[in-house]
Amino acid sequence: MTLFHFFNCAALTFGPHFVYYTATPLSEYDTLRTCWKAALVYLGTTLVKLVCLATFLQVSENDTFELSQESLKALIGFLDVLGLYIALTQLTYRNISQNHKFQAVGLCWAFADSLLHRLAPLWLGARGLEFTWDYLLQGLESNASLVFTISFAALGSLMWLRKNKPKFIVPLIYVAAGVLAIMPSIVRLVSMLNVFVMKIKAYFQ
Protein backbone atom coordinates (compact mmCIF):
# COMPACT_ATOMS: atom_id res chain seq x y z
CA MET A 1 0.00 0.00 0.00
CA THR A 2 2.85 2.39 0.77
CA LEU A 3 4.50 1.76 -2.61
CA PHE A 4 1.14 2.25 -4.30
CA HIS A 5 0.80 5.64 -2.60
CA PHE A 6 4.37 6.53 -3.61
CA PHE A 7 3.79 5.64 -7.27
CA ASN A 8 0.54 7.60 -7.30
CA CYS A 9 2.25 10.68 -5.90
CA ALA A 10 5.23 10.26 -8.25
CA ALA A 11 2.92 9.90 -11.27
CA LEU A 12 1.02 13.03 -10.24
CA THR A 13 4.27 14.96 -9.74
CA PHE A 14 6.30 13.88 -12.79
CA GLY A 15 3.75 12.30 -15.13
CA PRO A 16 2.42 15.52 -16.70
CA HIS A 17 5.92 16.46 -17.88
CA PHE A 18 6.24 13.22 -19.86
CA VAL A 19 2.66 13.49 -21.14
CA TYR A 20 3.34 17.03 -22.38
CA TYR A 21 6.55 15.95 -24.09
CA THR A 22 5.02 12.96 -25.87
CA ALA A 23 1.69 14.60 -26.72
CA THR A 24 3.23 17.67 -28.37
CA PRO A 25 5.54 17.95 -31.41
CA LEU A 26 8.52 18.21 -29.05
CA SER A 27 8.99 14.44 -29.24
CA GLU A 28 9.13 14.58 -33.05
CA TYR A 29 11.96 17.10 -33.20
CA ASP A 30 15.49 17.15 -31.84
CA THR A 31 14.60 18.82 -28.53
CA LEU A 32 16.42 16.56 -26.07
CA ARG A 33 19.59 18.61 -26.41
CA THR A 34 17.57 21.73 -25.75
CA CYS A 35 16.10 20.09 -22.67
CA TRP A 36 19.51 19.16 -21.30
CA LYS A 37 20.83 22.68 -21.83
CA ALA A 38 17.81 24.22 -20.09
CA ALA A 39 18.17 21.79 -17.18
CA LEU A 40 21.86 22.68 -16.81
CA VAL A 41 21.03 26.39 -16.81
CA TYR A 42 18.43 25.72 -14.12
CA LEU A 43 20.97 23.84 -11.98
CA GLY A 44 23.47 26.66 -12.35
CA THR A 45 20.81 29.25 -11.46
CA THR A 46 19.75 27.25 -8.42
CA LEU A 47 23.36 26.94 -7.25
CA VAL A 48 23.86 30.70 -7.50
CA LYS A 49 20.59 31.28 -5.64
CA LEU A 50 21.68 28.94 -2.84
CA VAL A 51 24.99 30.75 -2.49
CA CYS A 52 23.21 34.13 -2.35
CA LEU A 53 20.65 32.88 0.17
CA ALA A 54 23.38 31.43 2.39
CA THR A 55 25.45 34.62 2.14
CA PHE A 56 22.89 37.40 2.57
CA LEU A 57 20.00 35.90 4.54
CA GLN A 58 20.04 35.74 8.32
CA VAL A 59 18.97 32.60 10.14
CA SER A 60 15.87 33.41 12.18
CA GLU A 61 15.41 31.66 15.51
CA ASN A 62 11.63 31.83 15.35
CA ASP A 63 9.57 30.91 12.30
CA THR A 64 8.08 34.32 11.58
CA PHE A 65 7.36 36.29 8.44
CA GLU A 66 9.91 39.12 8.22
CA LEU A 67 9.31 41.60 5.43
CA SER A 68 12.97 42.53 4.98
CA GLN A 69 14.09 38.91 4.67
CA GLU A 70 11.23 38.01 2.34
CA SER A 71 12.00 41.06 0.18
CA LEU A 72 15.61 39.92 -0.08
CA LYS A 73 14.42 36.42 -1.04
CA ALA A 74 12.22 37.94 -3.74
CA LEU A 75 15.17 39.95 -5.05
CA ILE A 76 17.29 36.81 -5.21
CA GLY A 77 14.34 35.06 -6.85
CA PHE A 78 14.78 37.28 -9.91
CA LEU A 79 17.79 35.09 -10.73
CA ASP A 80 15.23 32.62 -12.09
CA VAL A 81 14.11 35.26 -14.57
CA LEU A 82 17.74 35.82 -15.55
CA GLY A 83 18.25 32.08 -15.94
CA LEU A 84 15.24 31.74 -18.22
CA TYR A 85 16.48 34.71 -20.23
CA ILE A 86 19.86 33.02 -20.70
CA ALA A 87 18.23 29.70 -21.62
CA LEU A 88 16.00 31.35 -24.22
CA THR A 89 18.34 33.90 -25.79
CA GLN A 90 22.00 33.13 -25.10
CA LEU A 91 22.16 29.42 -25.87
CA THR A 92 22.25 28.12 -29.43
CA TYR A 93 19.84 25.43 -30.54
CA ARG A 94 19.93 23.68 -33.89
CA ASN A 95 16.95 22.60 -35.98
CA ILE A 96 14.36 23.93 -33.57
CA SER A 97 11.81 26.68 -34.12
CA GLN A 98 11.07 29.48 -31.71
CA ASN A 99 7.71 27.90 -30.90
CA HIS A 100 9.32 24.61 -29.89
CA LYS A 101 12.21 26.33 -28.13
CA PHE A 102 10.17 28.05 -25.44
CA GLN A 103 8.14 24.88 -24.84
CA ALA A 104 11.25 22.74 -24.44
CA VAL A 105 12.95 25.28 -22.17
CA GLY A 106 9.85 25.78 -20.00
CA LEU A 107 9.12 22.05 -19.78
CA CYS A 108 12.64 21.04 -18.80
CA TRP A 109 12.99 23.97 -16.40
CA ALA A 110 9.85 22.84 -14.58
CA PHE A 111 10.93 19.17 -14.67
CA ALA A 112 14.36 19.96 -13.24
CA ASP A 113 12.70 22.01 -10.50
CA SER A 114 10.36 19.15 -9.58
CA LEU A 115 13.18 16.61 -9.71
CA LEU A 116 15.44 18.67 -7.48
CA HIS A 117 12.87 19.76 -4.89
CA ARG A 118 10.30 16.96 -4.80
CA LEU A 119 11.91 13.62 -5.61
CA ALA A 120 13.73 13.18 -2.29
CA PRO A 121 10.72 14.17 -0.12
CA LEU A 122 8.55 11.77 -2.11
CA TRP A 123 11.00 8.90 -1.74
CA LEU A 124 11.53 9.47 1.97
CA GLY A 125 8.00 10.44 2.98
CA ALA A 126 5.44 8.99 0.61
CA ARG A 127 6.48 5.44 1.47
CA GLY A 128 5.56 5.93 5.13
CA LEU A 129 2.96 3.84 6.86
CA GLU A 130 0.73 6.81 7.61
CA PHE A 131 -1.24 8.35 4.73
CA THR A 132 -0.89 12.10 4.29
CA TRP A 133 -2.20 14.59 1.77
CA ASP A 134 1.05 16.57 1.71
CA TYR A 135 2.60 14.65 -1.18
CA LEU A 136 -0.55 14.78 -3.29
CA LEU A 137 -0.61 18.53 -2.77
CA GLN A 138 3.07 18.56 -3.72
CA GLY A 139 2.15 16.87 -6.99
CA LEU A 140 -0.53 19.50 -7.67
CA GLU A 141 2.05 22.19 -6.89
CA SER A 142 4.37 20.60 -9.46
CA ASN A 143 1.61 20.73 -12.09
CA ALA A 144 0.92 24.39 -11.31
CA SER A 145 4.64 25.11 -11.59
CA LEU A 146 4.72 23.38 -15.00
CA VAL A 147 1.88 25.51 -16.35
CA PHE A 148 3.34 28.71 -14.93
CA THR A 149 6.88 28.05 -16.18
CA ILE A 150 5.79 27.24 -19.74
CA SER A 151 3.51 30.29 -19.74
CA PHE A 152 6.35 32.51 -18.55
CA ALA A 153 8.72 31.00 -21.14
CA ALA A 154 6.12 31.79 -23.82
CA LEU A 155 5.86 35.40 -22.66
CA GLY A 156 9.65 35.62 -22.45
CA SER A 157 9.92 34.29 -25.99
CA LEU A 158 7.59 37.02 -27.21
CA MET A 159 9.45 39.63 -25.19
CA TRP A 160 13.06 38.70 -25.90
CA LEU A 161 12.98 36.89 -29.24
CA ARG A 162 10.21 38.53 -31.22
CA LYS A 163 10.90 41.93 -32.75
CA ASN A 164 7.38 43.01 -33.65
CA LYS A 165 5.64 42.24 -30.38
CA PRO A 166 2.34 43.65 -29.09
CA LYS A 167 2.74 46.46 -26.56
CA PHE A 168 0.45 44.80 -24.01
CA ILE A 169 2.90 41.89 -23.70
CA VAL A 170 5.53 44.00 -21.90
CA PRO A 171 3.50 44.62 -18.69
CA LEU A 172 2.52 40.95 -18.61
CA ILE A 173 6.19 39.98 -18.71
CA TYR A 174 6.99 42.21 -15.74
CA VAL A 175 4.02 40.93 -13.75
CA ALA A 176 4.95 37.30 -14.47
CA ALA A 177 8.58 37.97 -13.55
CA GLY A 178 7.50 39.50 -10.25
CA VAL A 179 5.20 36.58 -9.44
CA LEU A 180 7.96 34.11 -10.32
CA ALA A 181 10.39 35.93 -8.03
CA ILE A 182 8.08 36.19 -5.01
CA MET A 183 6.45 32.77 -5.41
CA PRO A 184 8.43 31.17 -2.51
CA SER A 185 7.40 34.04 -0.22
CA ILE A 186 3.76 33.65 -1.28
CA VAL A 187 3.84 29.91 -0.61
CA ARG A 188 5.48 30.50 2.77
CA LEU A 189 2.91 33.14 3.74
CA VAL A 190 -0.01 30.92 2.72
CA SER A 191 1.48 28.01 4.66
CA MET A 192 1.87 30.15 7.79
CA LEU A 193 -1.70 31.42 7.45
CA ASN A 194 -2.91 27.84 7.13
CA VAL A 195 -1.08 26.85 10.32
CA PHE A 196 -2.49 29.91 12.09
CA VAL A 197 -6.05 29.04 11.04
CA MET A 198 -5.60 25.43 12.19
CA LYS A 199 -4.39 26.65 15.60
CA ILE A 200 -7.41 28.93 15.94
CA LYS A 201 -9.78 26.07 15.09
CA ALA A 202 -8.05 23.80 17.59
CA TYR A 203 -8.28 26.51 20.26
CA PHE A 204 -12.03 27.00 19.89
CA GLN A 205 -12.71 23.28 19.75
Labels describing this entry:
membrane; cell membrane; transmembrane; mainly alpha; globular; 205 residues; 6 helices
Mean pLDDT: 80
Number of strands: 0
Number of helices: 6
Q: What is the helix fraction of residues, given as a range?
A: over 70%
Task: Tell me, briefly, the overall form.
Answer: globular
GO cellular component, one term: plasma membrane
Keywords: Cell membrane, Endoplasmic reticulum, Membrane, Transmembrane, Transmembrane helix
Transmembrane segments: 39-59, 71-93, 105-124, 144-161, 168-187
Family: Belongs to the TMEM147 family.
Provide the fold topology.
Blueprint lengths: L1 H22 L8 H25 L10 H24 L7 H28 L8 H27 L8 H36 L1
Characterise the protein shown here.
With 205 residues, this protein is mainly alpha-helical. It has 6 helices and no strands. It has helices spanning 2-23, 32-56, 67-90, 98-125, 134-160, 169-204. The longest helix is centred in the C-terminal third of the chain and has 36 residues, at 169-204. It is found in: Cell membrane; Endoplasmic reticulum membrane. It is a multi-pass membrane protein. InterPro entries: TMEM147 (IPR019164).
Question: Concise description?
Answer:
The protein has about 200 residues and is mainly alpha-helical.
